[in-house]
């Protein structure tokens, strides 16, 4: 039930509940304060009359019974019972309707004749009607030396009715006040929630083609400006993601179309007429090259997909940079010689990394560096320690990379040549794989290519104990 209520209704109900608690607490305090004050007032009146009874009994010229009865006459709440030492009733003036007779009064010891009448002498009980009664029983010596026992009491019927009416008014006031607070709170919250409704209405108009909130954050309350700004930033990221996805789809179709087109064209030409065994063998060899290229592309794409979902299991170990880079230099030495490029290797220190993934990342950078280095140039591979861990850099001379292309170098299928003239040599995901590998290690990769200078790619590995762990893959 509560889940189906709006936030405005929930908050309004919460306001009403808080108001009910506040009104209830205040009403309880006021009720008890008034009850205490009324009882204290009645007790003071009861003690004053008890003192008057004692004076009337002790009069030297004898008891004036009419005067003694006058102590309680005119007030239906008071009653008086006077008895002698033999428990003979000398005077009984009951409170109207109280039903308090000799047997109805509690058996309490009387106060001594010379004791002071105070609050401690007052006793309380309940009469036959359920009303509270408070009284004083004391001894008094009359003018002839007789010891008399008198019991003065007051019924609380009027007080009980007063407090009952007061309690009902407090309850009614608390209920009406709580409902009023809830209703006014609902109206105030509904007005306060209007900017949120505008944000929701604006968000409903957002589409893939129009990823922007039709709202001016400056016109929103300060508490909602941050929300609107965060939503707009999210939409900016979504727009960037949509653009990347669209570009990725186009690039993927382009790179898959070329080998598939080659396979299809060569096969159709071969089947158009009778061919020799050598020609069929050459066709199969060419097709195998295209299949291998497709297999590499699919394998790279699967690696990127698994890396993004943290399904690549890292097996980090402390590796010797000199040994690892020397091995990579030996592996790429033949490719460098074929391209007329020299390869210089300098590895020092250690790195905490997965050996296979490290070799793959550095290998991709070396392959790119050799491909773009002019004949006679030198590719430099260095490994060294830095303050926050270890680093591996690959530097090469060459045409360099335009500054506008640097931010997108590590995007999938991105190549600075929009015509993709060398699409047969590169799938465009090598640098994306490098970035994914560094993300798995909790590190980073950066590229620097100043005009006329060396193009340098640097892998930064964090120190031991600072790497983020990847979840094991299946």
UniProtKB/TrEMBL annotation:
Keyword terms: ATP-binding, Cell inner membrane, Cell membrane, Kinase, Membrane, Nucleotide-binding, Phosphoprotein, Transferase, Transmembrane, Transmembrane helix, Two-component regulatory system
PROSITE patterns attached to this UniProt entry: HAMP, HIS_KIN
Reaction it catalyzes: ATP + protein L-histidine = ADP + protein N-phospho-L-histidine
Histidine kinase domain residues: 251-465
EC number annotated for this UniProt entry: 2.7.13.3
First and last residue of the signal peptide: none
TM regions (residue ranges): 170-189
Gene3D superfamilies, sorted: 1.10.287.130, 6.10.340.10, Histidine kinase-like ATPase, C-terminal domain (3.30.565.10)
Major subcellular site: membrane
Residues annotated as domain HAMP: 190-243
GO MF, one example: kinase activity
Compartment(s) where it occurs, according to its Swiss-Prot or TrEMBL record: Cell inner membrane
Enzyme class name: transferase
Role description: Member of a two-component regulatory system.
Name by which UniProt lists this protein: Sensor protein
Taxonomic source organism: Cupriavidus malaysiensis
